[in-house]
Structures are given as structure tokens and as C-alpha cells.
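Please review this one:
***
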Amino acid sequence: MRVGLELAGRYRLVRSVGRGGFGEVWAADDLLLDRSVAVKFLYREVVSKSPVWLSKFKQEARIAARLDHPGITAVDNVGEYDGQWYLVMEFLPGRDLARELESHPSGLPVDRALDLGAQVAEALAAAHGHGIVHRDLKPGNLMLLDGDRVKICDFGIARIAEATATHTLNGTVTGTPAFMAPEQWLGGAVDHRTDLYALGGILYALLTGGTPFPGPSVPALMGQHLHVPPTPPGEARAGIPAEADRLVLDLLAKDPDRRPASAARVGEALRAVIVRMSAPPDPPPSAPRSGGRVLTGHTSAVSTVAFNPDGTVLVSGGDDGTVRLWDPDSGRTTRRLADQTGRVLLTAFGSGGTLLSGGDDATAHLRDLATDRTSRLLTSHPGPVHAMAFSPDGTVLVTGGDDASVRLWGGVTARPIRVLTGHTKPVRAVAFSPDGTILASGGDDGTVRLWNPGSGRLLGALTGHSGAVNSAAFSPDGEILATAGDDAAVYLWHVAAANAIRVLTDHPGPVRAVAFAPDGAVLASGGDDGTTLLWNMASATPLRDLTAHTGPVRALAFAPRTPALATASADKTLRIHPL
């Protein structure tokens, strides 16, 4: 072929614009209608490889010429010049999706990928409605035009793939191996579901930047398409909606009967996902203000809850032996850690993305959340660890255990730097003052002890509780210590004077947890009756009763930067209460 050649006295060749698996494409002028067209010449070798292809090609081209859909390249004419057959099609100024993907190696924006996939599905539905199957659908056959519109090319040529299914052309398997359905690899009959398989591979590429199977050779690809399930695209790239993830895997089913029933249904499903992605988020559940958002996932009682320093992560631990990290805004679990044995009773955040957890396995686990690895196992307690906390500067951590001891740990040592003794029964509560100069501990012996954490010297013992002390918290200014006990009482202690200044007795049963709001104006206490009380610290009177849980409230944590309180309960749930 050459520039200036005229075909059928009507089409004048202007320039060659590319070569493909079956032929060469030229831009040409339609002299009759004064417009640009594309002329695709089919390789002569195709005729010699399969002499039966011509009648199939002509039939397909005639049908394709009758297709009228904005997503399908219009076929205007078919002819022969010097023994070489050609198709005349509308000229498409743009580039194919294969080139577009080269510019987006990690995939297109998710909503854009789904929209392009929906356009292809809708065009396929039109073709399939006329009994036409493409058989070689791939990014290189999808032209991207202005306005992000997609058009499918080569419907007239694709019939050749059926006639030459067991042959190769120029060393390439007929069709495109990365997108060929299992039935094509086996030389079996193809139908509209074969195109759906290829569409699944195209969607996979648009969403992730890669193909479902890596190869690296044609035999390897064949084995993978026939026998290996694809990795879900959602595992290759975050942010893909679960419905889209599932749809891609359904399209890539090995058995055609397990693929979606039609391209029309695929298009509808993709449009529905796009609508859901663009819709504003659902409002929070219309629960009473005291109920808050419910977080579910633990399979047994939740014993501990804490926010990280900037309030972007919530952590919980439970009797199911797992630690869960949550997005407090959405209420979704972002990570699940399950490397402990026995109940997880305590969690605490340190500085620099560290997380401490412990419980029945007599071990405190110190994790680096950036690498998701346990950096230290603190194992000197001979029994369960019931209490733990970081010093305000994050350099020292303290644990309290079933052995009635309080142990301080620092640096990277695997042994405690100091063991504080004095309690006669298990220690269930520890807390540092805001300036780190005082450590408080409480336990089953009903006493609260104040220590100098630097020297280990006992500063004083506070008595008043008639039962076990379950929780302790300093006010933000360090002047008041609140403790919660089995005796249904919350004690407020003046730290400097080492005496009780108020006893709060509105709970009907044991109080398991206390926590101060970041500004110190409010104290929260949670009890076995499933109720959390909010107290006005200026008057020491109840502000609100959060009656939401159906089981004992075991732990509390105020969000550091937003007016919210997280509660953990034996009813297997956490709640985030707006305040």
C-alpha cells in the first residue's frame, strides 16, 4: 500500500497509522462524502492459513455494518484490492486503551475505570443482540475519544479468530493471550460469554494496571487461564468497591455458565456501583443520642478500648483473643491482629506508632504498627496482665499483673527495670500523672498506691474502697485522681493531699472504668449495669446517662480532638457516643 492509492474509486490513502495482529490500518479520505475514514487491510497470510475465513469474514462485516451504536466503530464498506481484503470504518481521532494504560501503570481512577467498563458492556450488549461476538476484545481494540467515550473496534475482523483458533500468526497465538477465555484456549465453541471473560480482564487492567495472570510465557498463561483463580483486584489495589471486585471475579469464571448472564446486566451492575460511589455517605444510624455508633466484629466480650494520640485510630481487644484497629469515622475495622493466646484485657498506644496489648497469656506485646511486627514481648509476669500504660513521654511503660506486682519497662530491654511490690492481690489499674512524676496503681486488695516511678518509692496509700479497684485516671491538670471499684463507687482523690474529696455512688453495681475528657470538665464512668455516666467535674453531679450497652461496660476512652466517647462492653460491641 502507498500514499495516494485510491480504492474503489472512492477512498484515497493518506498515511499508515498502525499495524495489528490481523492487518494494517491507513487513514484515508472518502472522496464521495468528503470525510476522513480508516481502512484496515487484512494480511494475505490469513487467507493461506485458513481458506474458510473469507465467507465468515464477509458475513460478519455485513452484520457489523448494520450495527448502529455509539460505542461501536461504524463499518461503512468491505472490498478487495490486489488480492488483499479491507474494511472501511469511521476514522477515530484518539488513542486506544492500551496506550492509556501505559500512562497509568497502577490503574485508572476507580470511578473512571468502572465508567469505561460500563460503556464497553453496553456496546457489547448491542452487538450480542445481533448475534455478533467479538472474540478478540482487548484494550488495543478499544478507542478512547474526546469526552472519555469508548468505541469497540474490529468486530468485522474478529470472526477470523474462530476460523483460525488452532493456528498461530507471526508467532502469536490467535487472539490475545492475556484476555482469552478458557474455551478459546481449548479450541471450543465461543459465544457472548467469551466476550464477557475478556471484559473481566479489561476491567482488571483498568482497575489495577495489570492483567489477571502474569504469564510469563504463552504456555504459562494457558495454564493460569485454565486452572488458576485470579487474585481479586481489591487485593492488588485499595479502594475498589466490594461489588466491583466480585463482578470482575464473576466475569473471569473458568466455567462460562458461572459468568454473568449478559453484557447488559454487567453494564447495569457497573452503573449501580458508580451511582453508589458518587452518592453522599449515608447518615449515621438514627439511634438515640446516647446510643452512638455501634462497632461490631469481636465474637466475645470487649475488654479494652483506646484512641491513638491524634484520634485517627481506635483500638480494641477482647475475650476472643484478637486486637482490632478501627477507623473511628466510618466504624470499619482496618486491621485485625490475632497473635495472642487467651483474652486480650489491655491495650495502650505509645509514641511513634507503637501499640501495647496484653492479657491472659501473661505477656505484654509491643508492636510497631508501621511494619505490623511485634518488636518486644514482655514476659516476666507469671500470670495474666490486667493493667498497662505508657508514661506521657512514651519512654516508660508500666504493667500490673495477677502476681500483685507493678513492673516498669524502659528502652528496649526485655526485662523490667523496676518491680514495685506492696499490693497483696492482683493489680487491675495503673495510670501516670500528666507530667509523669506519679504512678498510681490499684487492685483487688481495695487500695490505691502512689509511686515515684523514677525511684520506685511509695509516696502514699489511699484507702476507702471496700472492694477491688478496677480503673484509675488522672485529671489533665494532675490534681485529681479518679478510681472505680467493685463497691459501686467512684472516688475522687486530691493527689497532693492524698485524701478523698468526693465519692460518686450513682452506679447500682461494680464500676469497671473511668476516664477524663481532654479538657478535664467531664468524667466518664462505666459499670456492670451497661450504663456509662458523664459527670460535671465542677459540681461532681451527673450530666448524662448513656444507657446503650446490654452488657457490662468494661473500658472507656475519650477521643483526643473531637467531642466523642468510646465504650467497650461485654455485649461484644463498642460504641462511639457523640458528646
Summary: The domain at 293-578 is CATH 2.130.10.10 (Methylamine Dehydrogenase; Chain H). The radius of gyration is 35 Å. The longest helix spans residues 110-129.
